[in-house]
Design brief:
Length: about 450
């Protein structure tokens, strides 16, 4: 990643591009979308104000002078069509501006076609597993992370947008100054910049640097420490390290009241009520009880199709494998539908429809399930990993438990560490072979 830091410490990055000489004109389409947007904004004054505040008032875009248009020599411009998603129920960002980097120019190419995505390596399972090993846990958001990273001025003409203040007013052209949502390279630039910050500031903020390198998924920090003092140091270092590049933290949540209260009112004033469960990387966590839980929201349908079955399975998100047996049962049912060669919109046959309806109705029982987040004990003399593996005609799988033994042998703790139960392929397989696969799976953890 090509980058520099300005006098204020903010990072200035370049979008990785292919050959952009094939980029065509896009102003006409952007103008058409602007007219559609204005008709909507003119009916909602609050949304119009929020739209302006989102970028102009925050200094995240700059006006383009009329003489600096796309006809200038050796200048390639791209006009991003955009629209707003108004979310009045949100406590922080009530309006999200969506930029369409996929809109084609008259050459058939879009901005995203000419941007390199870069490589983003973030493993939710690894992050969540480390999270479970910390006695004092916390989660934080990096506020407007993408928009705290500046784009090289030489590339900002690729991020032009148009706005106007009245139905008959001439559109005003702006250039976005920061990394922009929904452009192909945005996730890579944001994550790579955070990693660069961690490396640049490692000597001053060693604890925060380590967390930024391994416990961040996009703009979510999911981490903790074994002692309260270390957790407080980490909290302070994260705040100060991110401040050096213009970033701020908000939405603090923690299983520790002392740690939660260490953050300022401004930093956690919009935080989720800690009496309720919060979402961390798609998993529901209740900080006050310090356990994971599952919320099941399945719409009631009189008759299911194969597409509806797949939709239900997609709602059962479980990166830690904690409800693997439940998800496997659903996937095995889906396999049966494939074997019956049902079309996507074909209703389930009566012979199996009742089985599926019973399964869906039983999913509500998952809401009673509570799984401790913290895997360890305060002090232990011995730590063991206990692996179990088995197979059947329908599936094979493995589960690993973490077993802690204290100095007083009477005090022990065993917690589920990881569980994996993949469904079988259609081809018949020898049960002994499947048991071997299950054993290999257990050993791999």
């Amino acid at each position: 990643m090509t980058h520099t830091r300005n006098e204020a410490g903010r990072y200035i990055v370049q979008m990785p591009t292919k050959d952009i000489t094939g980029l065509g004109h896009s102003k006409g389409l952007a103008m058409k979308r602007l007219d559609q947007l204005w008709r909507r904004l003119s009916k909602d004054k609050q949304m119009e104000i929020l739209y302006r505040e989102q970028y102009l008032d925050l200094g995240h875009m700059e006006k383009v002078e009329e003489h600096l248009d796309e006809t200038s020599a050796n200048k390639f411009c791209y006009y991003l069509p955009h629209h707003g998603v108004f979310r009045p129920d949100k406590t922080t960002t009530k309006l999200r501006v969506v930029f369409n980097g996929l809109a084609s120019t008259n050459s058939g190419l879009s901005l995203n076609d000419l941007l390199l995505k870069g490589e983003v390596k973030e493993d939710i399972f690894e992050i969540m597993t480390r999270f479970r090993k910390q006695k004092y846990a916390f989660t934080i958001d990096i506020q407007m992370m993408f928009r705290q990273i500046l784009i090289d001025p030489a590339q900002r003409d690729l991020l032009r947008i148009m706005l106007k203040t009245g139905a008959n007013d001439k559109p005003v052209i702006y250039r976005l100054k920061t990394v922009t949502y929904l452009t192909s390279s945005a996730p890579f630039l944001a994550i790579r910049t955070l990693k660069q910050l961690a490396m640049d500031e490692a000597s001053r903020f060693p604890l925060a640097s380590k967390v930024a390198l391994q416990d961040v998924y996009m703009d979510d920090v999911v981490s903790g420490a074994q002692t309260l003092d270390t957790a407080r140091q980490l909290q302070c270092q994260l705040q100060n390290m991110l401040k050096t590049c213009g970033m701020k933290l908000h939405k603090w949540n923690s299983n520790s009241k002392e740690l939660f209260n260490s953050s300022t009112d401004q930093e956690h004033s919009f935080s989720t009520n800690t009496e309720s469960a919060i979402k961390i990387l798609g998993v529901s966590w209740k900080p006050t009880g310090d356990y994971f839980m599952f919320k099941v929201s399945i719409p009631s349908i009189a008759s299911y199709t194969k597409r509806d079955v797949l939709s239900v399975i997609a709602r059962l998100y479980d990166p830690l494998g904690l409800i693997g047996p439940v998800i496997s049962k659903a996937k095995i049912f889906l396999q049966k539908l494939w074997l019956r060669k049902l079309n996507w919109e074909e209703c389930l046959p009566e012979a199996i429809a009742s089985d599926w309806l019973n399964f869906v109705s039983s999913l509500k029982a998952l809401e009673e399930l509570k799984i401790d987040r913290y895997l360890l004990t305060d002090s232990y003399e011995k730590l063991m990993l206990l692996g179990y593996a088995d197979a059947s005609e329908s599936a094979y799988g493995a589960v690993v438990y973490m077993h802690c033994v204290k100095e007083d042998v009477s005090e022990q703790r065993t917690a589920c560490y990881i569980k994996r139960i993949p469904s079988l392929p259609f081809a018949d397989s020898c049960e002994k072979y499947l048991k071997l696969l299950a054993g290999i799976m257990a050993a791999s953890y």
